[in-house]
Specification:
single chain, alpha/beta, Rossmann fold, Dihydrodipicolinate Reductase, domain 2, 2 domains, six-stranded parallel sheet, 9 helices, globular
């Protein structure tokens, strides 16, 4: 499958361009950017890269089968719809929408085009999360009673960063809260019933700290998400006969080594580690298997819609400070 990228973002250059280049069956062949100098790191990965000076020009090329969209959040829906209308498969960065109500348009456009459209939610492709789901739903910790999660970093000094700008759909919840929320949903297989507590702190009309409590059918949930705190990430699934912790669940082998620690009744501790797995490569390969061969995709739009619905619930319930 021949891939193009809309926009020369730093994240795309560091993670997704190398992943597309390395994924089995994938070819990175095109980049659209109005700043030619930004194409250099992409061309270093794919020497035969074709650089377009506009997104529309790339989408008009019939030789390109799929596009990856790493644009600012507020541009995800319009450019995903344009790419689908141009007959491309689309892998768009999270959050693919800003409200759950926008998913209907994406689902309709993908069905009309006969193309795969998905959110680039890489963690569900990693064996760390697949194993966690298997253990939790298989009863390894007994009945799941509580999930707690923290995901934070501090970009207070990056004043112009899109995460700190309300007009680009910035904020901590949309940037990293999707992982804190979606991880609990994926591993448990359950959806939130209510958000009894959400304390949100804003700067410049952008959420920079969130303390969230949620009720799921069988367990309670608590999370801290912030873009104004020392970097930290962890999620724990606590049952009545054991608990399971993912020590580096979101930036596996970047923030730290991907590790799963299971402690059950009797204090028996089992640790599993995946030091060499690249979740971005797995994401591209699973996307290709689904788009080209019809295999089930681990993160369909229906799953992403559920995470956005939880996000909408948090914003609605949020006490703004």
């Amino acid at each position: 499958m021949r891939w193009g990228i809309l926009g020369a973002s730093r994240f795309a250059a560091k993670h997704m361009a190398p992943a597309i280049h390395s994924a089995q069956g994938a070819q990175l062949v095109a980049l659209a950017t109005s700043a030619p100098a930004k194409a250099a790191p992409f061309a270093a990965i794919a020497p035969d890269l074709q650089v377009f000076d506009s997104y529309d020009a790339l989408l008009a090329d019939p030789a390109i089968d799929a596009v990856y969209i790493p644009l600012p959040n507020h541009l995800h829906v319009p450019w995903t719809l344009k790419a689908l209308a141009a007959g491309k498969h689309v892998l768009c960065e999270k959050p693919i929408t800003l409200q759950a109500s926008e998913f209907e348009a994406l689902e309709t456009a993908a069905a009309d085009a006969g193309r795969l459209c998905a959110e680039a939610y890489m963690i569900v492709h990693h064996p760390q999360f697949i194993r966690a789901r298997e253990l939790v739903q298989g009863g390894a910790i007994g009945r799941l009673r509580h999930v707690d999660c923290v995901f934070s970093f501090n970009n207070a000094e990056a004043v112009g960063d899109i995460r700190n700008r309300p007009e680009t759909g910035g904020g901590g919840l949309r940037d990293i809260g999707v992982y804190a929320f979606g991880a609990a949903r994926f591993v448990s297989g359950q959806e939130p019933v209510s958000i009894p507590y959400a304390n949100l702190t804003f700067e410049n009309d952008v959420d920079v700290f969130a303390h969230v409590a949620a009720e799921f059918p069988d367990f309670t949930y608590g999370a801290v998400v912030s873009i104004r705190m020392q970097p930290r990430q962890s999620i724990t699934f606590h049952g009545d006969t054991g608990f399971l912790t993912l020590t580096c669940p979101f930036n596996a082998n970047v923030h730290d080594v991907a590790e799963l620690v299971l402690e059950n009744d009797g204090q028996r501790i089992v640790t599993e580690r995946w030091p060499a797995v690249n979740q971005y490569v797995l994401q591209v390969e699973n996307f290709e298997a689904s788009a080209a061969k019809g295999a089930a995709y681990p993160c369909p739009l229906s799953f992403s819609r559920g995470t956005q619905e939880m996000m909408d619930m948090v914003f609605t319930a949020g006490k703004r400070t």
